[in-house]
Write a structure and sequence with these properties.
The complex is a heterodimer of chains A (about 400) and B (about 260).
Chain A: E1 7-8, E2 11-15, H1 18-36, H2 38-50, E3 58-60, H3 62-68, E4 72-77, H4 87-100, E5 105-110, H5 114-126, E6 129-135, H6 136-141, H7 143-151, E7 155-159, H8 166-179, E8 184-187, H9 197-205, H10 207-220, E9 226-230, H11 235-241, E10 251-259, H12 270-273, E11 275-279, E12 281-286, H13 311-319, E13 323-328, H14 329-343, H15 349-363, E14 370-375, H16 383-395
Parallel strand pairs in A: 4-14, 5-6, 5-8, 6-7, 9-10, 9-14, 10-13
Antiparallel strand pairs in A: 1-2, 2-12, 3-4, 11-12
Helix pairs in contact in A: 2-4, 3-14, 4-5, 4-9, 5-7, 9-11, 10-11, 14-15
Chain B: H1 3-13, E1 18-24, H2 30-42, E2 47-51, H3 62-73, H4 78-91, E3 96-99, H5 102-108, H6 110-120, E4 124-126, H7 136-145, E5 148-153, H8 160-166, E6 172-175, H9 191-199, E7 206-209, H10 215-221, E8 227-230, H11 232-240, H12 247-262
Classes of the chains: A alpha/beta (about 400), B alpha/beta (about 260).
Chain lengths: ~400, ~260
């Protein structure tokens, strides 16, 4: 689906400073070489299996399904990966690539801290120096993940510019890379950024969808009717969608964060409310004003709190190959407690958005229909936020 | 012939180097920017580069980031800046450039933006996040309106330099070192090799920017090229005299010292 210039339809591209162009070209060449290289693929598979704990289960959520009273809801348990989310799939791929390219220093941006923790983890395991950029506001909101990264030996730089969140952490990581491009590998955490990142990250995450396909065939002997995943930048969604894009009977649904409502100024529903633009090296959809100034996004979930979306999602949206919807903070919180109480699984607030939409969707389906939800991460990191938001309701 | 080319050709004929000065529009406010541009021209700036403030200036260091944020906090819009340039054009014939991130142009509409630039009297655009490969469409449009798209080359450009230069108008913006805008104590070891490499191609003027912050540095570096660009040091001075009554005087004196150094 990627064209020669790294475009998905009109989306994607390489909007970066001249200083980074040769680095992107080198990265693309190294990446293409590694994807052809069986020993690289075997090494990656070794770490995915023995270090990250793949494959992850595809679990039939029987009580949740019966409670809703519609189709069968399956959960792809990415929360069971090492470091608690799908992020490690991509990080292992990129850090192995960095090693092959002879880079000695790793940098990353992080929002909630999940990608930062995954990067710090893999860097520790491979003995590489790691520095993570994180918005100062997120450093405060996600203090535990900051401490985790420090325990893992990474240096965390709080970013105070702009809105002090993920967008600004990404800006700062790009600035660092521009400065230290000769020895530094920038590990981007989602299917965003200049080509080849959106393609490369998708390829490292498609293992989610590849496994799901095999597992659902083994358990149900047919493909699912719906696949639902949350979308910030969109890496877990593209990971589970990608192997199903050509299966026309499978409906792919991405769930954006509606925050306090898509008709308020406080949401992160990029495809629902955004317009075409260019940021962080890519052409895609962004929340912005008529001068192209980026509007600060909002979501209760730090991982969805991003004003843009990966270019391939923008393409799937416009071509109609996937559908994108939005759910609010309140709906996500409700789903968070439902899944905890009915299945004994505490989801990440990001993933709770996907669960929330699955609950709505399941009600409209027949009992013989199958819904797969990508449970992209576990909720330990969010317990503090949820306590603040709905502690009293849980007590009752 | 474009005003940029005219100005740079004339300087070259007299064996003089060009001084280009930068400031962020709307920092501290649009009237102050207007007065500062005139003052800089009066004190010897050969070309003035006006930065359009942007929410996510990834090519800029902390000084210009802060100036842009302050300008945006003052609700500066692109149309305010266009009106300012229109007024400036009544008072000066000196070439004026925009430093503008691509998304601002893209949202405005590429052709509408270039057309508007031409109408108010902007001579060229520096777009720091639009590399050669992505710039074909805007080059095509700007050629129609005779607005120069200034290409950047950097020490990491290597074999790309030749192709970039062969397709350029106005001048070549040579980025002195890797990294973002802002003051640097010294330049990288490969700077000399880089400039030798750049100077091999074309007669288009080569101007060095990024990290040049003092008359001493201007002296040290000017002979490698046809001119220098000073940005963050001026913006910092404006910021330090944000509400001070002697702001114009201080910046004017600094530009005078840069002009002395460039001679």
């Amino acid at each position: 689906m990627t064209s020669k210039k790294g475009r998905f339809g009109i989306f994607g591209g390489q909007y970066v400073s001249e200083t980074l162009m040769n680095a992107l070209i080198d990265l693309e060449n190294a990446y293409n070489k590694c994807m052809q290289d069986i020993s690289f693929q075997e090494e990656l598979r070794y770490y995915l299996e023995n270090y990250a704990g793949r494959q992850t289960p595809l679990y039939y959520a029987k009580r949740l399904s019966e409670y809703v009273g519609g189709g069968k809801i399956y959960l792809k348990r990415e929360d069971l990966n090492h470091t608690g989310a799908h992020k490690i799939n991509n990080v292992l791929g990129q850090i192995l690539l960095a090693k092959k390219m002879g880079k000695t220093r790793i940098i990353a941006e992080t929002g909630a801290g999940q990608h930062g923790v995954a990067t710090a983890t893999a860097a520790a395991m491979f003995g590489l120096k790691c520095e993570v950029y994180m918005g100062a506001e997120d450093v405060e909101r996600q203090a535990l993940n900051v401490f985790r990264m420090k325990l893992l030996g990474a240096k965390v730089h709080p970013v105070n510019s702009g809105t002090s969140t993920l967008k600004d952490a990404t800006n700062e990581a790009i600035r660092d890379w521009t400065q230290n491009v000769k020895n530094t590998f920038y590990v981007i955490g989602s299917v965003v950024g200049p080509h080849p990142y959106p393609t490369m990250v998708r390829d490292f995450q498609r293992i989610i969808g590849d496994e799901t396909k095999k597992q659902i065939m083994a358990q149900e002997n047919r493909l699912p009717d719906y696949i639902i995943a949350c979308v910030g930048g969109g890496s877990n969604a593209i990971g589970i969608f990608y192997p199903f894009i050509k299966d026309k009977t499978v409906k792919l649904i991405g769930v954006e964060a509606a925050g306090r409502g898509v008709d308020t100024a406080q949401h992160a529903a990029t495809l629902t409310k955004g317009t075409h633009g260019v940021l962080h090296g890519m052409m895609s959809y962004f929340l912005q004003d008529e001068d192209g100034q980026i509007n600060p996004p909002y979501s209760i979930s730090a991982g969805l709190d991003y004003p843009g979306i990966g270019p391939e999602h923008a393409f799937l949206h416009e071509s109609g190959s996937a559908q994108y919807v939005a759910v609010t903070d309140q709906e996500a919180l409700y789903a968070f407690s439902q899944l905890s109480q009915l299945e004994g699984i505490i989801p990440a607030l990001e993933s709770a958005h996907a669960i929330a939409y699955a609950l709505k969707k399941a009600k409209q389906t027949r009992e013989d229909e199958i819904i797969v939800v990508n449970l992209s991460g576990r909720g330990d990191k969010d317990v503090h936020t949820v306590l603040r938001e709905m502690g009293d309701e849980i007590d009752e | 012939m474009s005003r940029i080319k005219q100005t740079l050709d004339a300087l070259k004929k007299e064996r003089k180097k060009a001084l280009i000065t930068y400031l962020t529009a709307g920092h501290p406010d649009i009237e102050a920017t207007e007065a500062l541009v005139i003052e800089m021209v009066k004190k010897g700036a050969d070309i003035v580069e006006i930065g359009i403030p942007y929410s996510d200036p990834v090519a800029d260091g902390p000084v210009i980031q802060k100036a842009a944020q302050k300008a945006l906090d003052n609700h500066i819009k692109i149309k305010d800046i266009m009106y300012m340039v229109e007024r400036l054009r009544q008072k000066t014939n000196t070439p004026l450039l925009y430093l503008v991130y691509f998304n601002c142009i893209f949202q405005y509409g590429m052709e509408k933006f270039i057309n508007h630039c031409k109408r108010v009297g902007i001579d060229g655009l520096i777009i720091p996040d639009l590399p050669y490969e992505e710039s074909q469409e805007i080059r095509r449009i700007s050629a129609k309106y005779d607005v120069d798209i200034i290409s950047l080359v950097s020490p990491t450009s290597e074999e790309r330099i030749k192709r970039i230069i062969s397709d350029s108008t106005g001048f070549i913006y040579c980025v002195s070192s890797t990294g973002v805008t802002g003051m640097r104590k010294k330049f990288e070891a490969d700077f000399e090799t880089f400039m030798q490499n750049v100077n091999e191609y074309g007669d288009i003027p080569k101007i060095i920017g990024f990290g040049i912050s003092s008359p001493e540095q201007v002296k040290e570096i000017k002979d490698y090229a046809d001119g220098v660009i000073v940005g963050s040091a001026i913006v910092k001075m404006i910021d330090e005299h944000y509400l001070a009554s002697d702001r114009l005087e201080k910046v004017g004196a600094f530009v005078t010292s840069l002009k002395e150094a460039v001679k």
